[in-house]
Structures are given as structure tokens and as C-alpha cells.
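Q: Give me the 3D complex with pyridoxal-5'-phosphate.
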Amino acid sequence: MTSHLKPQSGLELLQPYIPGTPIEDVQRQYGLRDVIKLASNENPWGPSPRAVEAIQRVLGQIHYYPDSQCHELTRALAAYLRVHPDQLIMGNGADGIITQLCMAYLDEGNEVVVSRSSFPIYDHFTHIMRARLIKTPLKDYGLDLEAMAAAINDNTRLVFVCNPNNPTGSMVTAAEVDAFMATVPGHVVVVMDEAYRELVVSDEFPETVSYVRQGRENVIILRTFSKVYGLAGIRLGYGIAMPSLLGPLNQVREAFAVNLLAQAAGIAALEDTAFLQRTVETNHTARLWLYEQFARLGLLYVQSQTNFVLVKVGPRAGQVQQELLKHGVIVRPCGGYDLCDFLRVTVGTPEQNATFVRELEGILRQMAVI
Ligand SMILES: Cc1ncc(COP(=O)(O)O)c(C=O)c1O
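A: Here is the predicted complex, encoded as C-alpha cells.
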């Protein structure tokens, strides 16, 4: 039967976002009990225990609407980041803030500059707002900030700098970001997406919050509780920017973008510095171990500052990913990121990583890739 519904024109170009395959799907499809998911860059150690306790404490209050302004969480984050509460906005994940940015700043025909092989949600909301996407090439599997700067013109409204970049894991340095920021005109909002910031160990990473502390009006920094804090399922992210940039976001945002449980969890997770430190340290050690294994197998990989690694397994990467599923290991294929020969694997616990490497090695030998 033909439908008479009339969605927004242009939606036919849009594919729904494809998330990492859920564990239950793989269990059902292949009749497996033990399945490990290394596909969505979640925290393999689970959520911050203090966040879980905080959620349990407020469960009996969920008949109330949450605080629309997230006062307590905002105050806690402002103290932690050494910014004014007016310089913060909370969202239903960092994704929620990306949506707000696109709704608030894009008109039809405006341009948005992104890098190839970067986080696909930028493309998605740019298309929904009927703005034009301008993609610059990667340089050595990292963002080419000079190319991104060169792509800016009078029609540009947003530039998304994913740092470190998902899915390559590489970062741009403080010196590179400073040089880039010096060239960006005032009408362009620079979105510094730092979803993995807490996991970075390099001391060359830019301290971008200082742009906001110094009053720079056209930059917003995005962070999330989904990764290092282990709270992906409850959806909490935030943006740091001058009130003049945030005003339009507050105009378009959902009234209750952050639910009551997420607000309580966020405050508690921020205080759980021991959990944070343990996650960062174990991730770093495990990532180095993965590098060693990829080198042993003769596989090219990209040095990462995050909790995932991009590894090249060749033109049959899709088949390798499917075989891994049958063996109970979920990783991310990268065709959708223009990196068809690669897989992106989240750094898991040492046990999960060992299982992944064992299965990968067996499959690659069987397929005569190595
Ligand atoms: C670069 C980047 N930005 C934003 C997000 C979204 O984070 P959230 O879970 O807070 O919406 C992700 C999640 O994978 C990400 O990789």
C-alpha cells in the first residue's frame, strides 16, 4: 500500500544511524552464551559504582520531572572545570548537544566542515537541517586542520573537530589547534568534540577549555559521561562555551533533556576519581598490549589516544567482522567511515582483549590474510 505521509524533503538521502551490534542480537543469531562487545567504546569495567549508588538513591523520585536546568550537576561541573555555570549546557549525551548545535546554527544552504572518517552524527544532523557538508581529507589517519581551515568560507557555520578522532583514535596537538583557531573567522562555531578527552595520555593535547575561560565566543567543547565514566546507557553529555554561543542552544533544546537519574549519576561519577584513574590506567596498558599483538600479526594499526584502536585487516574486513561475530566478538566494521579495510576495536578488559586477539588470529590465518 502506498503511504500518503509526507516526511521532510531530503530525508530519503538519510540512512538511520547504525550502532554497534547489541550482545543479545549475536547471542540469539548464533546461539552463543558468551559474547563480548568491543564495538561502541564503552567502559569494559562497567559504570562508576558511586554513580550506581546515586541512581539507586533517587529511584523513588522518578515520578517527578527532572530539574530542567540541571542546577546541581552544572554547579559540580563548573567547579571541576573552573568555568562559570553559565558557560555550561547539559545534554542527552554529547549527541544531544550536537543536535542542538545543528538546530540552533544551521539554515538551509549553510555549510558545515567535517573531516572524512570522523564521527557520523555530524553528517546526519547537517543533512537533517539541509545544510551542505564539506568533507576534508585525512592526513596520516588524523584530522588535517589546515585543510579544514581552508574549507571555511562566508557560508560556513559549523566546523566539527573530533579530537581525538573517532574512528582513527589520533589527536591534533595544542600547537595545531592554536594555529587553526587563529585563522577561524568569528561567524564560524568551532565544535571541539572531546568525547574521549579523559583517556588521553599525551601532554600535547590542547587545553581547549582555556579558550572559553578567556572569553572566546565561537568555540564549544563537548564532553560525555558515556566513555570513561561508564554511563553510556543513561545518556549524559555537556558543552562548555560562552553564554552568547549557548543562548540559541537553550532556545532549541528539549525542556527535560537530561533525566533525573542521569543528573544524580553524573554528580556522583565526577566525584569517583579512583574509578576514573583506574579506567585510564588499565585502558592505557591494555592498548599498548593490543599494539604489540597487532605488530606480532603484521597488522597496521593507528596510534590511539582513546579506548579504541583502528586496525587494518584488508579488503575482506567485512567478512572478518562477520566471522568474529560467529565467535562471539563484536567489533566495528569501518566501511561507513570510508575505511573499508579496517576494523575498530574497543579496548576491553585484559581477558576480553585476549579472546579478541585469539579469535582474530585464528580467522585471519584461516582466511590466509596473515
Ligand atoms: C566522537 C564522539 N562524539 C560524541 C559521541 C556521543 O557521545 P554520547 O554517548 O554522549 O552521546 C561519541 C560516542 O561514541 C563519540 O565517539
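A quick observation: The two ends are 51 Å apart (CA to CA).
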